[in-house]
Amino acid sequence: MLSKMRKMDNKGFTLIELMIVIAIIGILAAIAIPNFIAYRNKSFCSAAESDAGGISAAVADYFSIPTHVNTPTVAQLSGWKGYNFTRAGLSNANHGGIVGGDPNDNITITVTDGSGRCPDDYMKASPYQWDSSGVRDGWDSANATYYKFISLQR
Questions:
Q1: Are 111 and 51 in contact (CB under 8 A)?
Q2: Cα distances (angstroms) measured from residue 66 to each of 25, 63, 70, 104
Q3: Up-side HSE of residue 148: CA atoms within 13 Å toward CB?
Q4: SS3 label, residue 148
Q5: Angle 55-39-116 from CA coordinates, rounded to 5°
Q6: Is the confidence at residue 148, as pLDDT, over 70?
Q7: Residue 116 backbone zone (phi > 0: left; psi -120 to 50: alpha; other: beta)
Q8: Which residues lie below 8 Å from residue 153, measured CB to CB, with a gap of 6+?
Q9: d(CA 69, CA 82)
Q10: pLDDT for 131
Q11: What are the TM regions of this chain, as residue ranges (predicted)?
């Protein structure tokens, strides 16, 4: 019987080999898919932080002109020198704002995550706060808003 099977010259995989491969693929997928989703959600947070950085650069560019002495709004910066901070210009339907009074003081740039997919644990890991050196950029997890602080003192 054994010699008869050898003569048939069967090629291929056995059922157990295929089941082992499928089990390995299933285990890898069970580990990889949740991690992929977590990294993807964290990218929404990074997009809001990047939007705040873009607005910050536009504010610095705005104040580089000596005649600009009042704090601009996001609407004023949009379209100026090619900047686009309208709702279509920010990532993932994020909302941006600039808060500041005296141009010799501080400006606060806020960007709210419009996707609603930035994880709470990411936001709580880097909260904004006032400290001895002034302020620190960070997240307000209750409002899903990223705060970026700029000191304009000359």
A1: yes
A2: 62, 7, 11, 13
A3: 18
A4: strand
A5: 55
A6: yes
A7: left
A8: 104, 105
A9: 20
A10: 60
A11: 12-37
pLDDT at 150 over 80: yes
Vertex 76 angle, CA 84 and 139, to 5°: 70
Which tens digit of pLDDT belongs to each residue from 68-114?
888 888 888 877 777 777 655 688 888 888 887 565 577 888 899 98
Token match 């100026």: residue?
80
Strand order in the sheet with 95-99: 95-99, 106-112, 145-151, 138-140
And the tokens for 116? 């609603």
